[in-house]
Write a structure and sequence with these properties.
- The complex is a heterodimer of chains A (74) and B (402).
- Chain A has 74 residues and is an all-alpha fold.
- Chain A has 3 helices and no strands.
- Helices cover 8% and strands 64% of the residues of chain B.
- Chain B is built from 3 helices and 18 strands.
- Classes of the chains: A mainly alpha (74), B mainly beta (402).
- At the A-B interface, α1, α2 and α3 of A face α1, β1, β2, β6 and β7 of B.
Amino acid sequence: MRIRGLILITLAVLSAGCSSIEPWVKPYDRENLADPIMAFTRAPISQDFLDHVFESREGSRGATGGGGGGCGCN
Amino acid sequence: MKAHFTRLVLFVITCLAGAAGLVGTATAGVLPEDRADLLYFRYDGGGVEITGPSVLVRKSIGEHFSVAANYYIDMVSSASIDVETTASPYEDERTQGSLSLDFLHGKSTYSVGAVKSDESDYLADTWFANISHDMFGDLTTISFGFKNGQNEVFRNVNIDGVKVNDPNFAEEMESKSYNVSVSQIITKNLVMTGQYEVITDEGFLRSPYRQVRFFIDPFTQDTQSEVYPNTRSSNSASVRAKYFLPYRAAVDAMYRFYTDTWGVIGHTGELGYVHPLANHWIFEGRVRYYAQTNPADFYQDIFPRADYANFMARDKELATYDAVTAGISATYEFKIDRFPWLAKGALNLRYDYMQVNYDDFRDARFSLGIYGVPPDDPLQPGTEPLYKLNANIIQLYISAFF
């Protein structure tokens, strides 16, 4: 419990202090990341179907959805 | 379970507290691109054939909203090993429709949606909500999601040759999912995502059809219905990375760890490579490996006797096994001068081959026979060869970007 508390406090401090962090990859340096081939899911319709297949054949589930927002390349 | 939930709530609050200080400095985020896709798929393996179309349309409305709609049909023809040993072959159709709305406000995107799935013996209604926020100069995206599913389970029976719902059987199941993810740009060529998801299920969790088998004596067996707990909670955590190679290609990797209150432990790994060629082609290769190293605590291929334990399962997806899936895809991108409103079109073909090797699920057709007809030379129960499953998966789809 003590370790969990320390982790949470550390996260809170880091998060609060991050407004002063300078982005180390500038917007004009993100051309490669913005390339469509860098998308984790290039075709959602195909990935949804495959996820359905894997969920049926594998006992595991969850934590494979999209990252939720991409790379902020634009 | 309470401890898991408390931990998740604390984590969410902590992260939101950090994010809150940045909202005021936000400029603009990005909505998903407008597109339409039409897919035809075919899964053929283990005696099961599933074919169907799926159509997905996504369109932005103004600068702040984007809607997406999906319609999907599964046409199932099943003579799986479970069906062959303890039931009759069947055909069924599942239709699924979904609608979602994204709202972009500054650096934050709020999403809500609903999914409705209907088949003759299973009705599912799901709604979900998600919030994601770009921060640290758009280097980091943090997301939180919640999903709730209400399911009704029925059992089909044949009455006078007509398939109907068993009037004496109707059950319910509820599923909730809590999800948090962080995407991080590491360098100008590398992006990573970490994700953690808790899923809780409560209600009727087994198949109404599947049977377990048990010994009457060392040479004779019989079957009875499965008995499952009515709750299941799972934790899964994954990390993914994608790297842009110097010659315009990309390589990606994923690992997921899974554990649940039934004792199942699973490891998933995936490697992918994307390679554009000339101006029109994109080729992709992908390998996925899944290892289920622990079966469910109440899983056995054959139980020592009838009513052996409080809970008994013989679902092969709760056994110990590993699976390899290898796939290749080709995309041809094009433009049509006569349609200036079409930014880009793409034709896609994808093929995957899946092989599953079970360590403690035996091919009971060698002893029970098929559809009640025993084999000519039946094997002693528990000595049958281990079951293997091979599947071919084909997808053909066309995409239009506006």
